[in-house]
Specification:
mainly alpha; about 0% strand
Amino acid sequence: MSAIGMHVSETVLAFTLLVITSYILKRKRILSQDDSAIFARLLTKAVLPATILYQLWTYPLSGEIAVPVFVMFLSGVVSMAISYLSGKILKFDRQSIGALIIVSSFGSSALIGYPVIEYAFANDPQAFARGIIISELGVGLPIFILCPAAAMYFGGMPTGTNGFLKILKDYFMSPIFLAVVAGIALSRLNISNETPFIYTVMEALKMVQGALVVISAVILGLQLSFQKMKGFWSLIIVSILIQMLFQVWFSGAVSSLLGVNAENREILILISAMPAAILGPVFATQYDCAAKTATLLTFTHIVISPIVVPIVFTLFS
């Protein structure tokens, strides 16, 4: 196993210990599953935007990042098509096909991917910044555009929302997207880090970034639940093969063909190996698209990720 592969393995296992600890706290009723909503808002409205702003502001990005973003986006779109064909061949019902497409297309890059990238490439802060932009443009944006569309098509009519345009608007006005824009803009201004007020702001952002890993683990631990999986094995196997194996191979192969450098290729492979995004069940619930199936698939991905992620990263990086 390569040095980075070993680091990824140790990182995922350490992260899993934090998740298990949070799960135990839930079982002991020190925390409750309802608390996960508070932590999730804290993560998406404050910690994650602060992390993104700090990284992109501190480490300006070059034009070479456009190709990895394209590879990541293409990987997700191709996975959607394969998920659909697999569902039709295996004769899953319409809503289950929708759930399979949602869960198997785009991984949990922000919730799990960022902490893993941060520690796997601890000696290269710029790798973390590149991971953020690849993830946000190649994974985050498609999740908010394509996954709700799939859920609407294969599920029922949207409820409690003004529909697709509102989802798009919410994303472009979200703190995460605004942090991406602000971070890129500030990095182009070449403001000195030694300026007193600027230095204070950046140190504050850096402190907030330190909470990213712990809060992510707490959310997963509080949301984690175990249900009977009878009748779901074929869906689970197909989903894992597409999301956590095919995407890794596809991203590695296409990035090599397009001449992506070794480090960006490793970042692509690591992001591609991430388990299903937790937004999948949210969209499935919102549009009546086999929400329980989507939830079960997502949690199964998360449970096996400590074993699968290091293995596939080592094999394909």
